[in-house]
Design a protein that fits this description.
Elements: H1 29-32, H2 44-55, H3 57-64, H4 68-77, H5 87-103, E1 106-130, E2 136-141, E3 144-145, E4 152-156, E5 158-160, H6 166-171, E6 178-182, H7 194-203, E7 208-212, E8 235-238, H8 240-248, E9 259-280, E10 287-293, H9 303-323, H10 339-351, E11 358-364, H11 372-380, E12 386-392, E13 400-404, H12 409-422, E14 426-429, H13 439-442, E15 448-454, H14 475-492, H15 504-513, H16 517-522
Parallel strand pairs: 5-6, 6-7, 7-8, 10-11, 10-12, 12-15, 13-14
Antiparallel strand pairs: 1-2, 1-9, 3-8, 4-9, 9-11, 13-15
Helix pairs in contact: 2-12, 3-9, 4-9, 5-9, 9-14, 12-14
Length: 531
């Protein structure tokens, strides 16, 4: 959902603005404070990961040239719209379930749940302004309704609120007007999510909201306004080119002031989404959750967001399934032909299984409209038995992996150890955000690792636009990140790890320190028990 980004949300969702990386893992103080399983000189965790890499060598080697991830991604993107609650999302769930079976996961099943299914209709954005002769001129611009925008019409003046930060909205008079805000945020500050911008603008009196892509290319953006319910005011996305005109017509610009009529046609009706769940490793009471969302927005193929992420998880699951049996043990064959060596190898691997706890691999639905599949999962599992969560939202898109650790020292040290052992750069960001599928677990105290990838640019890029298509994908990144995800899972599951629960007061303080409270309250996302 990975935003303006996940995550992701759709929320979360791409090189999500709220997910932009900062700093190398080795220079990050959160890593140096990591749990005792990691030290930076003598590094037993890195040694353990190298051992697991060797034990998974055959599966990782097959992945190196496997065309399966590309074929899966092709099947998924050929569906078209995978919007939450749509027939396309149902077809995508079937494709994922089949891929889980082919990957060797056990007990594959789907878990359906109800949601408010939103469907877009037409939008009219009509601008009336005087020309040089004083005559009224009418122009119409292309716009897309933002998910959960209600149907309806509003009219009034436009007001430019810049990036849409609370400070910028406070500085503008938005009452009774239509706020115009960018998809990006000023350099050097945290990214403010679309939901925060919309919520704060409406809370301040705006009657409508226009979300302007900051990237050129006639690409109006989409993205949900709320978590799973109809929003309070009509809202649309427009291209950078259209936004330039609208800002020129705003009451706080120097040009002629326009009167705007904004009409949105959309419906919100009862619908159904589903999670797809499979298992790998032993049937232990304690579980590690490996997640990725498979839904996407209706205006594109959703190849980057989050086709790459779910393809990465399917491929990582196959590596784990190929390398383990249902006891969590890796294959024990020995290529020396020496029976004694084989017996010793077998004994060592049984004493130190690749997966000492089982992994539930879950493709979650309805992420883009409010993390609804992840919320369903968090409500239906025994959270006390969940060791941790690995959420793959944005991995597989670009070259280098980014690990967002959401204040968890264990998650940070796991990412650092895998980076050290494999000599693959993994950038670590310790600060939390609520806009991808780790959030329903993080706010309940479960340690989580969210995996993204670094585009080298600020913002979503192609994500949440018509241009999020399969031709943008380099599946070498999917295959490589899948191998890293498999190793991250084995290390998060390691017996020597003791992941600590997140302290609620410390977590709330971290969100306040990152200046999330105002925007999250405006978006109705601030947890009641954090008061």
């Amino acid at each position: 959902m990975s935003e303006d980004g996940s995550p992701g949300a759709g929320c979360g969702d791409d090189a999500d603005d709220s997910k932009e990386h900062a700093g190398d893992a080795r220079n990050d103080p959160a890593v140096s404070r990591g749990d005792p399983a990691v030290s930076h000189g003598d590094n037993p965790a890195a040694d353990r990961i190298r051992d697991r890499r060797d034990r998974l060598a055959a599966a990782i080697g097959r992945t190196w040239t496997d065309d399966g991830p590309w074929r899966f991604l092709t099947d998924l993107t050929a569906i078209g719209s995978r919007m939450a609650g749509s027939p396309g999302e149902k077809r995508a769930a079937d494709r994922v379930a089949d891929a889980f079976e082919r990957a060797g996961l056990r007990d594959v099943r789907t878990d359906a749940f109800e949601l408010a299914a939103w469907e877009r209709g037409d939008v009219t954005l009509r601008v009336r302004t005087p020309d040089r002769s004083g005559e009224e001129r009418t122009r119409e611009f292309e716009a897309l309704a933002l998910p959960y925008s209600p149907a309806g019409s509003v009219s009034g003046a436009l007001v430019d609120v810049g990036h849409g930060t609370p400070a910028e909205i406070d500085a503008a008079d938005v009452d009774g007007r239509i706020a115009v805000a960018s998809t990006t945020t000023p350099e050097g500050t945290r990214f403010v999510h679309r939901m925060e911008k919309f919520g704060y603008a409406v809370e301040s009196g705006a009657v409508g909201f226009v979300f302007v892509n900051h990237l050129d290319g006639q690409l109006p953006p989409t993205g949900s306004l709320t978590f799973g319910e109809e929003a309070a005011a009509p809202a649309v996305g427009v291209s950078a080119e259209t936004g330039a005109w609208l800002r020129e017509y705003a009451v706080n610009a120097t040009g002629p002031v326009a009167t705007v009529e904004l009409t949105v046609d959309a419906t919100t009706t009862p619908g159904e989404s589903r999670n797809v769940i499979g298992r790998v490793g032993p049937d232990t009471d304690e579980r590690l959750l490996l997640l990725a969302h498979y839904d996407g927005h209706d205006i594109a193929e959703g190849a980057l967001d989050n086709g790459c992420g779910i393809a990465t998880v399917v491929t990582a699951a196959r590596i784990l399934a190929d390398g383990t049996d249902d006891t969590g043990d890796a294959g024990v064959a020995d290529d020396t032909g020496d029976a004694g060596v084989a017996d010793d190898t077998r004994d060592r691997k049984r004493a130190d299984p690749l997966l000492p706890v089982g992994v539930d691999v879950v493709a979650v639905g309805a992420e883009e409209v409010g993390l609804l599949g992840a919320e369903r999962l968090a409500r239906t599992v025994d959270l006390d038995a969940v060791r941790g969560v690995i959420n793959v939202d944005g991995a597989g898109r670009f070259r280098d992996l980014v690990a967002m650790t959401h204040t968890s020292e264990t998650a940070a040290s796991v990412a650092d150890a895998v980076s050290t052992a494999t000599r693959h750069p993994v950038k670590v960001r310790p600060e939390p955000h609520p806009f991808s599928d780790q959030w329903p677990f993080v706010r309940r105290g479960v340690p989580a690792l969210q995996l993204h990838s670094d585009s080298g640019e600020r913002g979503r890029g192609w994500g949440h636009t018509h241009a999020d298509t399969r031709d943008k994908v380099d599946d070498r990144n999917v295959r490589e990140h899948a191998a890293l995800v498999a190793l991250l899972a084995t290390e998060f599951a390691a017996a020597d790890r003791d992941p600590k629960r997140l302290d609620t007061a410390a977590l709330a303080a971290a969100f306040r320190e990152a200046e999330f409270e105002t925007g999250m309250r405006a978006a109705d996302l601030w947890p009641a028990d954090w008061e």
